[in-house]
Amino acid sequence: MKALVTALLVMLALAGCYREKRQFEPPGAAASAPDPTRATSLRPGAVDPVQPGVTAASQAANYEENAYAVNQGKRLFRWYNCNGCHGQGGGGMGPALMDAKWFYGSRPADIFATITEGRPNGMPAFGGRIPEDQIWQLAAYVRSLSGQLRKDVAPSRADGMAGAAPENERDREQPVAANPAPSSPKP
Asked: Residue 112: how many CB atoms within 10 A of its CB?
């Protein structure tokens, strides 16, 4: 009986380790090399033609529930110089990523589409240049900047001497759709 209880406890402990799971291989066989036709296939509600059971929502959950993937997104954010325009998430030439305003949507699939396809007036398209799994990691990290992820799923501390509060300590911002086009004056 004692061995059964011990085995059950070990199985429960192993089941709870997904939050820190390190995924060294990109999900799916086709995700290892960028494919421009596949990079834009995962839209909200769309089904991946290579992996029929995979939707954008299920793919995002794989990354947003994993602290290692979010930490990788933080590393990639710095490596791809996203902070050059977005100023560590606080804004600069590019929009702030820490506030509640989201010009093109706050859902993971919306952020994925923004990174993949780019946006007018400055955001370049990275589809076909960055592997799909890295785009999902970046999207998960971007959502963590405004407190959209669970508190126990957060990237590791920053390497700088001083900086903003850790991502998991920030208050959750309620996403608000912002109008990207300036409104015309009323006559």
From this structure: 27
Pairwise CA distance, residues 80 & 58, whole Å? 25
Say if domain 55-157+168-180 classifies as CATH 3.20.20.70: no
Torsion of CA 56, 81, 73, 126, to 10 degrees: 20
Q: Which of 86-100, 113-127, 128-142, 165-179 has the lowest mean pLDDT?
A: 165-179
- Say if residues 131 and 32 touch (Cβ distance below 8 Å): yes
How far apart CA 138 and CA 14 sit, in angstroms, is: 27
Q: Which sequence spans correspond to the domains of the chain?
A: 55-157+168-180
97, 86 contact by CB (below 8 A): yes
Greater pLDDT, 20 or 116? 116
Q: At residue 93, does pLDDT exceed 80?
A: yes
pLDDT in tens, 141-168: 999 888 888 877 766 666 555 566 667 6
Residue 176: its H or E element: strand 176-177
- Tokens 């001083």 correspond to what residue? 162
